[in-house]
Amino acid sequence: MSLTDTIAFIFYNAIFYAAPLIFTGLGAVFTERSGVTNIGLEGVMQIGAFTGIISNLFLHDIFGGATVFVSIMIAMIVGSLFSSLLAISSVTFRSDQIIAGTALNMLAAGATIFLVKKLFEGKGQTPMVKDAITRFDIPVLENIPVIGKIFFQNVYLTSYLAILAAIVGWVILFKTPFGLRLRSVGEHPTAADTMGIKVNRMRYIGVMISGALGGIGGAIYAQSITLDYSHATISGQGFMAIAAMIFGKWNPLGMMGAAIFFGFAQSLSTIGPSIPFIKDIPTVYLYILPYVLTILAVAGFIGKSVAPKALNTPYIKGSR
Amino acid sequence: MSKRWTSILIPVLAVILGLLVGAVIIAISGYNPIVGYTQLWEGIFGDSYVIGESIRQITPYVLAGLAVAFAFKTGLFNIGVEGQLIVGWFAAVYVGISFDLPAYIHLPLAILAAGLAGAFWAFIPGILKAKLGVNEVVVTIMLNYTALHVTNALIRSIAKGDTTEQIAQTASLRIPFFEEITQYSRLHGGIFIAILTVIIIWFILEKTTLGYELKAAGFSQDASKYAGMNVPRNIVISMVISGFIAGLAGAMEGLGTFEYVSTKTAMTGIGFDGIAVAVLGGNNPIGVVFGAILFGALKYGSLNMPNPPAQIPEEMISVIIAVIIFFVASGYLFQWLYEKFSKKKGVK
């Protein structure tokens, strides 16, 4: 392989694995900025992956080539509805957010496999989907010498949509009144309430955005990487997205950088053997890299990560 | 309503509601809930074999639940019981296959190794929290996956495959008498260790200065500090003890149920179910026993649900447990309903 080929290969694999992490991580940013931890994003991704695969299998005949994107949209809606359970229990009924999130994960793991078995005569795994997310060349840009080959030839559309989503997310969060309100209820809900912002409503929105994005993330993961759904389809990607959010300091762009890096580490464990130098590293180091780096990041060894102030505390009107 | 009364009433209501919601879901999915629950019951109490297996399932649940509950008492959320259990499981099996010792040394040594491995894994978030104020939830989640991949790599390196050999019988928790009375189920002596640990932890929390200090830190770190207690030290101690108990839960699997360890593609789930057990048990050692009996029995009994005539996938039980946890955690729901209810009465 020439150097350009190798770089192109690494880059495309990194953003290929990063796309689901970026979407889910962006969801994590929105919910945590509103003051609600969504540990249940792992479960939300499972719901998204399951919904994506099931929609893909059953809608294939109706939508043809557009099936994949229709499935992603359905997964987005279902993910959002599913995460509203977290909002109901932790925002309205003041349950501990971590406990409710854990319950969300259990529910997703149980419910999805229950339904798979119900739909496919007791088998714990769906058939493979016929339509997967495919690669294409971006017109015009692909012709730029060197750069075109690395960045714009033979890429997955979802990877670029993910990057675009992170940028849009950043603009919404930091440059719009809505973003300011969302962040204010996560930092100082009492002050926000005084200014007439409906704290609980903003938190519902934050949680449901996270569910929508986590649903998209799960659907993309399943339809581009595993192509079916079973209990092992999503194992840790949701938590890794939360890690990317923390590593990126609760900022959509920082999160995106972390997610691409984690995607790179994940992809190395699969493509590593075909790249010189990297093939000599035992894969276990590549597997644990995202998690270890996140621990170092929260410990302050790599810059300081500070969570929104009102995270994990239900807002009770009139209390100080 | 008094606090003591609600702390028992809410879990009981939650369990009843959870089972009712489960029945509705089963019915909507086109199965028969009565047949399903009958088979669930038979899967737990049907004969001496399933009773033995149910108790076997309850054993690690007691310890995992206790680990979560103990950390909770000090105001710490140990969501890393899963990872501590995995490293404990590996350590126990490693000692079990590597040494050639008489049983009265080998078995305690293997159990101790499991506890220490779990304690070490929990020491990391403990010291980071104590010294740097790092949120333990984040660190323990990250360490869960680190534990999974590290033990997988270690298993492959010592076993030259995906499963280790069987542990020496001198390190096994197997009790022939239990096997005889339960038609050779995998019920093992670990249940005594679990009960003993519950008693010790109850004693530490309720009857010792250490327990008092740990609980004080759970109520208010500032107040404990003002009273001259060493809060950072107590955080580390609490995490280490919690991790030790989680490691013991791993020993139950490694020395009792399976007597080997194999690589995993996903978490065991016992650690997360431990959170459910602790929540249902109100983070009280005695409550944890009841929580573990309920969830452990449901989990094992559910394996009988896919059999005809019910043919309900056993994953239904995870859904029911999750619903129960939603209800227990949302305790305010009951208060809210109670207030609504009493208000209406007032209007009349």
Automatic annotation (TrEMBL), chain A:
Membrane topology reported for the UniProt record: Multi-pass membrane protein
Coiled-coil segments on the chain, per record: none
TM helices/strands, residue ranges: 6-30, 39-59, 65-86, 98-116, 155-174, 204-223, 284-302
Cell location: Cell membrane
GO MF annotation: an example: transmembrane transporter activity
The UniProt record lists the keyword DNA damage: no
Keyword Magnesium: no
GO-annotated cellular components: plasma membrane
Pfam families: BPD_transp_2
Keywords associated with the record: Cell membrane, Membrane, Transmembrane, Transmembrane helix
Xref: InterPro entries: ABC_transp_permease (IPR001851)
Protein name: Putative ABC transporter permease protein YufQ
